Amino acid sequence: MLENSFDINKIEAGLDEAGRGCYAGPVFAAAVILPKDFYHPLLNDSKKLTEKNRDLLRPIIEKEAIAFGVARVDHNEIDQINILQASYKAMHLSIDQLKKKPELLLIDGNRFKAYKKIPHQCIIKGDGKYSNIAAASILAKTYRDEYMQIIHLKYPHYCWNKNKGYGTADHRRAIEEFGLCKYHRKTFNILPSK
Q1: Is residue 71 in a domain?
Q2: Nearest-10 crossing angle of helices 51-64, 131-152
Q3: pLDDT digit string (tens) for 97-150?
């Protein structure tokens, strides 16, 4: 059972990212402020849900949330500033979009770069503990998957419609055969060793 708040007296935004370990495409992040009494029986860490259930939850979260924001940082910027900094930047950009100002940020994971003067709390495996982080994980994941489906149409041989840019066997085989394309993260050392 997910907790609805870390501090009942504060307006909390849950934050999570998707696509940090991918070989290709942007990193996405989402920030979500849910009502304190929000409940949905399917809500959980996006990795524990089927694609169908994530797609079912996304419009519910967007409709019920007090505020939400989704942002991305592309592969070029990831190569320039590194994936950790890009993840922080995507999270900051998602907070920028919130129509209500949070008083506390709940971050999935163990590290975060402070945003303005808003206090934050890092929670390891937070997407399986707090509703607002779980909701953020679902938005980040579904928006990213949707984006990867679109760029898959331009480069179908990498099978991004299935692997979403992760380093699966079929993705690695395609890199060996076709090399890298413009959406690949060049700093990720993913070229096959000859």
Answers
A1: yes
A2: 120
A3: 999 999 999 999 999 999 999 999 999 999 999 999 999 999 999 999 999 999
